[in-house]
Amino acid sequence: MFFYNIGQKYLVGRARELFRVRMKRLTYVSIFSRELSAQEVEAIGALSVRNNTRDGLTGALFCFKDIFYQILEGDDKKVDACYARILNDDRHTDIFCLKVEMDIRSRFYGDWAMKTVLLDSAQEELLIPLRNMLDSLARTHFILGKYAPEQILRTIQEGLNPLDQPSFHTSRVVLFSDIMGSTTLTESLRAEVLADMLSAYYEIANRCIARAGGTISKLTGDGLMAYFPIEKAQAAVEASLDLLGELGEYRKRQRSGDPRELLYAGVGISAGPVLEGSIGSDVRKDYTLLGDAVNSAARLESTTRKVGRTLVFDSRLRDLLPRNRAVKRLGLYQPKGKLERLEIFTIPEEATNIGLTQAELKEKMSRFKSGIGG
Ligand SMILES: Cc1cc2nc3c(=O)[nH]c(=O)nc-3n(C[C@H](O)[C@H](O)[C@H](O)COP(=O)(O)O)c2cc1C
Question: What's the 117 CA to ligand 1 centre distance in angstroms?
Fold first, then answer.
């Protein structure tokens, strides 16, 4: 009898688990992609009520100035399907998921298929602090979206706390890039011109790396560290060639004698096992990678100055490239603090050719100090 009861309870529990509708609650903010009238916003609300009633979803949509703040709750899959439609809606942009609560047991907005509140026209005094709070919340997240590492943002978007995520062992392609002669540039140029060059460099680097499926893990003031999945070694090389090629185009677009003509960067790439995750103290953490591949990529990047090539990688990276990818061996190189020498390579293409020595580059840069250069 005792075992019968236990068995029965277990089966009832399992059946409940199997048939239980898994509910979630999702909260996001977004910004209007164009001006929307109150009628247009109300039309979104009306359509939402119709669809959400059909799909058993509930929630609230707040709208103020040019910002939407929406909470959607209900069956997991229905929420996902609705959110997928919302993500594709061209009436708003910069959609930023603030929170996903999984396995919720009850609804907050059970009576509302979608309560739409236009906070701009709401006069109640009590709504003023709410309006201000939502405004600063939305703006903070748009700013965070520009500065926080992608992996951290992705974790927040999945509704997880990045501080709770343990580090893990994996294999990555690691890329370092740096502006050449940045110390001389800093000494020689007006801060505005330097800031302009840095923005151009980061804009190009960001675009090329993101397009190839890479993640920028940190900006170093005059350079960056990025990483790619280990299967994307070729994409990392192509991204580097794009970056160097686009910098070449940028230099060509400048008028003769403009210091922007001297914007060159070096790229070093390696690959191998790393420890990835939030690493640091309780006060400050960085989402980063640790491992030999990281040190090697940084060292390889600094050799670009010595070998006259803007792109340098080691044999671990070369071995991941397809056989038909033309590579050029540059020789053996002894990195600082390492016992073995590394075989180093580049891609024999115009984009990786600096065309002038470091001494020549620095001499050209320092001319701006005395104002001779333009
Ligand atoms: C800010 C915002 C919130 C929205 N909320 C919902 C919603 O809760 N439910 C919904 O079905 N559609 C919502 N939509 C509309 C969807 O993006 C999409 O246009 C709609 O679901 C398509 O429905 P249909 O296939 O019935 O035409 C929203 C759109 C915007 C811009």
Answer: 15
* Domain interval for residue 171: 162-366
Testing ligand 1's pocket by substitution, the residue of 30, 32, 66, 85 carrying the most ligand atoms inside 8 A of its CB is 85
Instruction: Convert the pLDDT of each residue in 35-76 to its tens digit.
Output: 999 999 999 999 999 999 999 999 999 898 888 999 999 999
Q: Each residue of 314-337: pLDDT tens digit? A: 999 999 999 999 999 999 988 777
* Class of residue 35 by CB neighbours under 10 A (exposed 0-12, middle 13-18, buried 19+): exposed
CATH number of domain containing 243: 3.30.70.1230
What atom of ligand 1 comes closest to residue 89's alpha carbon? 17
- Average of pLDDT values for 13-26? 68
Indicate whether 14 and 104 sit together in one domain: yes
Of residues 182, 183, 188, the one with CA closest to residue 201: 182
Q: What is the CA radius of gyration of the chain?
A: 27
